[in-house]
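Regression test attached.
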Amino acid sequence: MRHRLRDPVTGLLFVLPVLVLFLIFRIFPTLGAAGMSLTDWNIGGEWSFVGADNYARLLDDTNFWTSLRVTLVYAAVYVPLTLLVALGTALLLNQVVFLRGLFRGMLFLPYVTSFVLAGIIWRWIYEFDGLINGLLAKADLGPVAFLEQSALVLPALAVVSVWKGFGYSMLILLAGLKSIPGSYLEAATVDGASPWQRFRRITLPLLKPTLFFVLVIETISAFQTFDTIYVMTGGGPARATYTLIYGIYEHGFRSFDFGYAATWGMVLFAIVLVVSLVQRRFLDRGNT
Amino acid sequence: MTLTASRPLSRAAGAARAGRPPVRWPLAALLAVLSLLTVSPFVAMVVVALSPAGRPTVPGRWPESLTLDNLTRVLSSTGFVSWTVNSLVYSVVSVVVILLTASMAGYAFAKKRFPGRDAMFWTFLATMMVPFQATLIPTFVLVNELGGVDTFWGLIVPTLANSQAVFLMRQFILGLPDELFDAAKVDGASELRVYWTIVVPLTRPVLATLGVFVFLWHWNDFLWPLIVGQSDTTRTLTVGLTTLRTEEMQLSTLMASATISVVPCLVVFFLLQRYLVNSIAMTGLK
């Protein structure tokens, strides 16, 4: 088109606001994060170049290894649980016609609220004189200290995030299920395949790309969990919920050790990058 | 899988053929139970918010009487009101600016040619892989150096560089036929006029969807407002809620605050549920 070739300036002018915002607030901080991790930047804005000292300190920091373990355990509980709940509810929504819109809305409702709200409600639900222990007391059980025991606190937090977030994956999986041609399942039914066989041999293989997408998205969000931890446990008890992001927050905004906090951020970046690259690798293979 | 034509039709397949799916009552009942379980924390929150103050609600028992006292008390506390106003400013300004800048950039990326266009676009996309939390420290230091801590611009401006929005707008505008824009150019319309009278009206459905998401992202946002909004002047509702501690105040007051904070989300949800649901399924926006 001629007019488009004639006028490169308008194109640039239309991009300019976004370009300026990106250069200043996305690209510069991304490069800055790498640069800062090589300095001892502090609250006063003074800094000197310290080379790889922060990374060496990281490797010697037991809190760092604790946070890595906590983050991985949390993801290992959260991701399968979310996928299971999201897939189960998506399958049910796909099968049941009765009041489907209402049920879908109810299941999706927590997704539009905030993690802070989820944390506030569930902190009370888990408390000694909270909802669950109140119900347990009626059955002469408990009380259970959900948020005060190292063994229970991570699964308890994972449940909160699952409750808050599964609606998103449920909708993605439901769209995936809807795209499976009904004739495949009908043919299998005619063939005498049991519901389990139909699920195992037809639905699941065809749903695999969607499941993989959801798996990657939920893994990344597991690594980014912060709000519920801040509200419900503050990283405790005894660092049992001290995740990578909590480490970034604490070093940055409790001890104002910006250089070292940026180093923690680089680890988070590396992990998310690896997960994203694995996703691309698999998706590319799936397309060929 | 092999088809054996001689096998008799099962009852379910027969019913499906007749065009009347069988009502699967056990599955429907299971779905109903799960749905009720999912909303029950909200119901519990509202019940406590409506209970008379003084921690009277034995958990698991319905309160003897309901009252609006907690809600009115929360709404008349100055802190809470200013947090709500701040959240509204944070969300609404972000929606307006992001819709405007992202649709302009999306139009240029989709329909204009200029030097460095593709390199720029892919760089924007690549920044999606950098989690915001990883750049939290340098972004804060930058805003701090520029004097933006505890100001509205410091709160809002860094969140306006949204690659998902630019990407979504570009993909949608790419699908619009070139002829529309060319015809307007032939008629002598200026570039701004083309943008305002053709691009904006044609992208209205995407703009609406994006607007809903940007609103929810900002209304529910926590980590950035937590570190930038350090006093009640700029503190948002999510951050304000975390400063309320149950030790110092009635549980019913806390739950009343929580209930009010969720109202905008519920309004968006009830008005635009179908919209939200479809756009998540189609675009994967999160």
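Expected vs. actual: identical. Chain B touches chain A through 107 residues (CB under 8 Å).
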